[in-house]
Amino acid sequence: MTRLRTAALVGNPNAGKSALFNALTGARQKIANYPGVTVERRAGRLVMPTGEPVELIDLPGSYSLDAASPDEEVTRQVVEGEFPGEPQPDVLVVVVDAANLEQHLVFAQELVALGRPMVVALNMVDLAERDGLAIDPDALSAALGVPVVSTVAVRRRGLDELVDALGNAHDQDVTTRHEVRNLSLPERRLNARNMARGAILSESGQHRLHASLDKVLLHPWLGPPILFALLFVIFQAVFAWATPFADALDAAIGALIALANGALPPGILRDFIAEGVLTGVGSVVVFLPQIVILFAFILAMEQSGYMARAAFIMDRLMAYVGLSGRSFIPLLSSFACAVPGIMATRAIADPKDRLTTILIAPLMTCSARLPVYAVIIAAFIPATTVGGGVGLQGLVLFALYIAGILGAMGAALVLRRTATKGGSSGFIMELPRYQMPPLRDLAIGLWQRAWVFLRRAGTIIFTATVALWVLLSFPQAEPGESQLDASIAGHVADGLHVLVEPIGFNREIALALIPAMAAREVAVSALATTYAVDADDEEAEARGLIPQLRAGWSLPTALAFLAWFVFAPQCLSTIAVARRETNGWKWPAFMVAYLFGAAYVFAGLTYWSAAALGL
Ligand SMILES: Nc1nc2c(ncn2[C@@H]2O[C@H](COP(=O)(O)OP(=O)(O)OP(=O)(O)O)[C@@H](O)[C@H]2O)c(=O)[nH]1
Ligand SMILES: [Mg+2]
């Protein structure tokens, strides 16, 4: 008996492979209630009851071994042992959705026909039961000729049995499975229907509630306004609910700065800690509550199954600009961050669709823009309500998100007629069932997002801000001279200022844009640090960023700054991932050029029209 070394989770999209992977290995892979979440292979360690470790591999969902999209190709390669640098998995764990059995058995048969040792995880039996379906795993096992174990990945049910079956499967006799070999697709479909019918013990049919929900939510006229209204509420909440928490964080950071100023002797170290670290990085950290609120909504929409409906609703709009609804999920992920968004395009089969989606993904308002938008809104947009208790600040934030979406749609429209010309493919996406988001998963997801944000603050934002502080602090100014004028950074800013002055940007903005190439939030920390370094005395320094902005910027400048960040591709990670996903520099270079061009034009238009209106 040889030792079991590797096992791979395979199956249709949204079967719960990653949920099983997380439950078995303790990993924290992203799971969400729509197809196409996992787009690359991930390995983790599963410890068998004997104490032996097994490498468990989570794979992208797939409908067959004839790969249609880049993510499905990864699955095919791993399953067939062609993935570079990786041996063929010893055992396949085929994950099927119990409530969608007929459909999932089509691919399962293709896998069985490979004649490899395998176990079937009959997952989501809880949802099947909820829908009034009772399924007999033994009947299914007899029909497929492989062991079948019922599981509920999110409640950790059936995991021990699955692990046992996995251990035994390694020495399976695969010679008894000839009957399913070499069937055509229609034959497999027919077989799947028969097998599913044979395994279903009872069916009471309680799909009605969900069907009627979809009648409303997917209604051609009702669906879009409902989606729109929901997004509107989210942005209202981001401002309304976050304020007390943000104020408390702000006060805490203020207290830390006062503490540092009191405890340390005047000098370079104190300035470094107060101006560079606490003021700079702190100015970004205060936006944590807003980020958390935004993600609470996004995660709940993903887990409940509503997000896939949103893709369905958007499909028509997407078709107008030459994209399919398939692009919606990657674009939606880009609201968190364009990096996973661009990776999610691997689930798009058509190469031109995929390229277009990559090129427009950075226009979706990622969470790194939230601090930039929020600080300008807090400084320049009064916290009043307009008609019927709608908060003006939330409204402006909503408008900025819409501006990003419209920008992306406009860009797609142009690209599809020029650079990525070609017919657009049809929309095929199954709609997942609705379900209450598991609170535990929500909490884990939120914690992960908060942690990503804080880690960025501690690494990339910290580094860029400290580097800027050094350039701002040396050489030191003569008495009476402004520190900014004297510094190296000030001289660099003078050069760039010439370029951006026509679009209403001042020297501080010009300076902040340089380190903000690393990440957008750095624009905020850079401004905070610049004003703190340049402040004449401690009192001016302690006032914080928002009063400095109010005192130093005109409204047209502030609006132009917002318009700039709707478009500007200020994120090195996005550029890097675009290079990786398009295998070269051509498209990322194109992306950066067109986005900077658009940023310049739209910031300029905003500045000049605001100025003309006398704002
Ligand atoms: N109720 C219930 N929900 C489950 C179960 N397993 C997974 N889910 C949910 O089903 C959804 C899909 O789970 P994932 O693990 O992301 O599915 P996947 O097979 O990895 O999907 P792709 O990566 O897109 O191929 C998520 O919302 C999970 O919370 C289960 O046994 N019961
Ligand atoms: Mg997955």
UniProtKB/TrEMBL annotation:
It holds the Pfam family FeoB_N. GO terms for molecular function: ferrous iron transmembrane transporter activity; GTP binding. The chain crosses the membrane at residues 216-239, 245-264, 276-300, 328-349, 370-390, 396-415, 453-472, 558-578, 590-610. GO terms for cellular component: plasma membrane. The keyword Membrane applies. Residues 4-172 form the FeoB-type G domain. InterPro entries: Fe2_transport_prot_B_C (IPR011640), FeoB_GTPase (IPR050860), G_FEOB_dom (IPR030389), Gate_dom (IPR011642), GTP-bd (IPR006073), P-loop_NTPase (IPR027417). Keywords: Membrane, Transmembrane, Transmembrane helix. The keyword Nucleotide-binding does not apply. PANTHER family: FE(2+) TRANSPORTER FEOB, FERROUS IRON TRANSPORT PROTEIN B. This is Ferrous iron transport protein B. It comes from Aurantiacibacter spongiae.
